[in-house]
Structures are given as structure tokens and as C-alpha cells.
Amino acid sequence: MKTTGIKKINTVVYLCFAIIGMIAVNGCKESKLIAEKNGMTLWGENCQRCHFAPASNAFSAEEWKTVGLHMQSRALLTNKERDKIIDFLQN
Ligand code: HEC
Predict the structure, then answer these.
(1) How far is the CA of 71 from the centre of ligand 1 (A)?
(2) Are 27 and 52 in contact (CB under 8 A)?
(3) Would you place residue 29 in the very low, low, confident or very high pLDDT band (cuts 50, 70, 90)?
């Protein structure tokens, strides 16, 4: 009687790990989707939330670096996202 009780608990524990594992894998997939976004997509999605998204020819390459740093803190972007957007706007 006692051993079957333990076996049942073990099954529940395994199931929990399986569910946690599935959630973890799903979470990684989502961040991969974000990582695959290019500069133009990130620019379109983030830079017009507060104002018109400025065109790439509105500032020089050097100015975009400064704007990127400033707007990174406003838009809460990762360094990678910021670099992609700056790269898109500079070229
Ligand atoms: C959370 C809101 C917000 C987001 C998101 C945002 N900005 Fe801004 N942006 C501002 C505000 C507010 C200003 C006015 C200057 C200041 O006080 O920061 C500004 C000013 C600017 C300016 C200067 C405009 C000028 O004519 O001098 C540029 C260029 C700019 N943003 C580019 C961007 C880019 C590129 C992105 C995307 C990475 C972006 N912004 C995302 C809020 C935002």
C-alpha cells in the first residue's frame, strides 16, 4: 500500500518536471524569436511608441550613436536591440 503511494507521488513529481521543462523550452523559443528580429523591425516596433519614428537620414551616423544610447533607456531596449536599430539607421 505504502509503495504505491510513493509511486503516485513520484509520477506527480515527474509530471511537474515535464511541465516546467516544457515552459522553459517555450520561454527560450520566444526569446529566440525576439533575437531574430532585424533592426528595421525593432525600429518600427519601438521607435514610434512615443513619437514618429525618425527616418534614417534625419541624423548622421555619429548622431545616431548618441540618439541610440538616449532612446535605449527610454524604450527599455537590450544592448543587442539598440545596436541592431543603430546599425539599421546608420546604413
Ligand atoms: C518611451 C518613449 C520613447 C521611445 C520608446 C523612444 N523615444 Fe525617442 N524620444 C522620446 C522623448 C520623450 C524624446 C524627447 C527628448 C528627451 O527628453 O528624451 C525623444 C526624442 C528623440 C529624438 C530627438 C528628436 C529631435 O528632433 O531632436 C530622436 C532622434 C529619437 N527620440 C529617436 C528614437 C529612436 C530611434 C527610438 C527607438 C530606438 C526612440 N526614439 C524611442 C521618447 C521615446
Answers:
(1) 5
(2) no
(3) low
